Amino acid sequence: MSDEKFHTETEQFDDLFRSSLGEMRAEPSSGVWNKLNRKLFLSEMMRLNFINLPKVFWGVIPAAAIITGIALYVGLSESPSTPIQPVAEETVTLVREEPIGSNVSNVSNVNDVNDVNSVNDATNDINDTNEINEINAINAINAINATTTAPLPQGTTEADLATAELASPGIQPMQPLFTDPLLTGFIDNVLIAPSPLVNPQKASGETTPKPSRKPLSRSFDMGLNITPDMVFYNTSSGSFKYNYTFDFGARYNLGRFYIQSGAGLTYSSDIGDYAISYLKNDSVGFYYTINSFTVDPGNPEDPDFETKEVTVYDSIEYLYDYSTKNKYYYIQIPLNVGYRIVDKPRWRLSVEAGLLYAYLVSIKEPAPTFYIPEGRVLDIERRTPQRNKHSLGLTGAVSIEYQFARNFFLLIEPTFKYYMQAIEENSSRGDKQPYSIGLRAGIWYKMNFKSKTR
Amino acid sequence: MPLDPTIIEGCIKEKRRAQHMLYQHFASPMLSLCMRYCRNRMEAEDVLQEGFIKIFQKISTYRQSGSLEGWVRRIMINQAINHLKAKKLVFLDTDPFTLGNWIPDETPADQEEQLYKPEELMEAIQDLPPGYKVVFNLYVFEGYSHKNIAEELDISENTSKSQLSRARNYLRKNLAKKKK
Question: For a designed S-S bond to A203, which of A54, A113, A212, A272 qualifies (C-beta 3.0 to 4.6 A apart)?
Answer without folding.
Answer: A113
